[in-house]
């Protein structure tokens, strides 16, 4: 197909994911196997690549049964309970928690220890949110949608934090809604700037092309956010988690096509998508 394609230079792994994957690969090269608590990255194709090198993805139930093994903690971080279990079970933890997430965990824990009521804007059940809530012995209020505000009794005063990969405008809108309801909000903008800054960058990028192909794992919260950013400014934005999902009818001769992705999307996958489009 005769199209002009450009891959976004700013897309691809954030430093937290690069750090976690590099640590995993170093150990796999040395030992040939390694356990990882949850998907190391929310991208099925990258997980499969690492599985072939010996990475074994486990859940918390399987973790509870391990003894004397080495386990990687991924960039999302873990609650304190996981570290306590590791000590009891003679498990060596390789902690690849993102430094941004660790800093946020510390802030949440310190505020909780000061008897502050914590609210976390984030996705229910997301690994990072579970880790943050764990800093409060499970006492933090988690809000995923604005509608949930109608279903709970709001405290008079809260410390508001956010999962690091949420959308900037939504976090600030939540703050404003809480204030409108008479809540005294001690506001903490805890978004990862490598993600939030891409909101502005991607808006400009997506305007430049006839079509946008956004490449991301389906489980990536960050991917959903950034895909929506592209779709906002370019309706001809298509989401794929694999090159096999591409459709020829999306493209016309002489189209300009931009390929971009989440902070959990590997460069090699965007290149595969580019090559597959050219071969349509």
Please characterize this protein's 3D structure.
It is a single chain. The chain has 280 residues and is α/β, with parallel strands linked by helices. The protein is 41% helix and 19% strand. It is built from ten helices and twelve strands. It has helices at residues 15-31, 44-51, 60-65, 80-88, 99-113, 127-134, 168-180, 193-207, 221-233, 267-278, and strands spanning 4-7, 34-37, 55-58, 70-73, 92-95, 118-121, 141-143, 157-162, 184-187, 211-215, 237-240, 256-261. Strands 1-12-10-11 form a four-stranded parallel sheet, with helices on both faces. It has a four-stranded parallel sheet with strand order 3-2-4-5, sandwiched between helices. The radius of gyration is 20 Å and the shape is flat. The mean pLDDT is 94.
Shape: flat
The helix/strand class is alpha/beta
Tell me what portion of residues adopts beta-strand conformation.
15-25%
**SSE pattern, N- to C-terminal:** EHEHEHEHEHEHEEHEHEHEEH
Oligomer: single chain
The stretches of 5 or more residues where confidence is low (pLDDT under 50) are none
What is the alpha-carbon Rg in Å? 20 Å
Biggest sheet layout: 4 strands, parallel
Q: Would you tell me the overall average pLDDT?
A: 94
What strand order characterises the main sheet? Answer: 1-12-10-11
User: Can you give the helix content as a percent range?
Assistant: 40-55%
In short:
With 280 residues, the chain is of the alpha/beta class. The protein is built from 10 helices and 12 strands.
């Amino acid at each position: 197909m005769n199209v002009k394609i450009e891959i976004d230079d700013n897309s691809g792994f954030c430093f937290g994911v690069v750090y976690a994957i590099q640590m995993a690969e170093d150990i796999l090269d040395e030992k040939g196997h390694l356990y990882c608590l949850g998907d190391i990255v929310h991208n099925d194709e990258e997980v499969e690549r690492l599985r072939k090198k010996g990475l074994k993805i486990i859940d918390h139930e399987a973790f509870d049964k391990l003894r004397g093994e080495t386990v990687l903690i991924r960039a999302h971080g873990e609650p304190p309970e996981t570290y306590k279990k590791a000590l009891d079970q003679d498990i060596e933890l390789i902690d690849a928690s993102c430094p941004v997430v660790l800093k946020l965990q510390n802030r949440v824990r310190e505020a909780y220890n000061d008897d502050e009521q914590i609210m976390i804007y984030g996705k229910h059940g997301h690994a990072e949110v579970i880790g943050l809530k764990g800093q409060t012995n499970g006492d933090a209020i988690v809000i995923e949608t604005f509608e949930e505000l109608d279903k709970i009794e709001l405290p008079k005063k809260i410390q508001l934090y956010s999962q690091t990969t949420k959308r900037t405008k939504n976090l600030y809108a939540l703050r404003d809604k809480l204030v409108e309801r008479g809540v005294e909000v001690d506001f903490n903008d805890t978004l990862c700037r490598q993600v939030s800054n891409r909101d502005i960058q991607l808006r400009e990028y997506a305007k430049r092309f006839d079509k946008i192909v956004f490449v991301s794992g389906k489980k990536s919260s960050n991917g959903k956010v950034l895909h929506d950013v592209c779709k906002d400014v370019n309706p001809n934005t298509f989401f794929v988690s694999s090159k096999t999902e591409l459709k020829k009818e999306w493209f016309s001769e002489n189209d300009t096509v931009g390929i971009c992705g989440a902070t959990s999307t590997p460069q090699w996958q965007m290149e595969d998508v580019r090559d597959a489009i050219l071969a349509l």
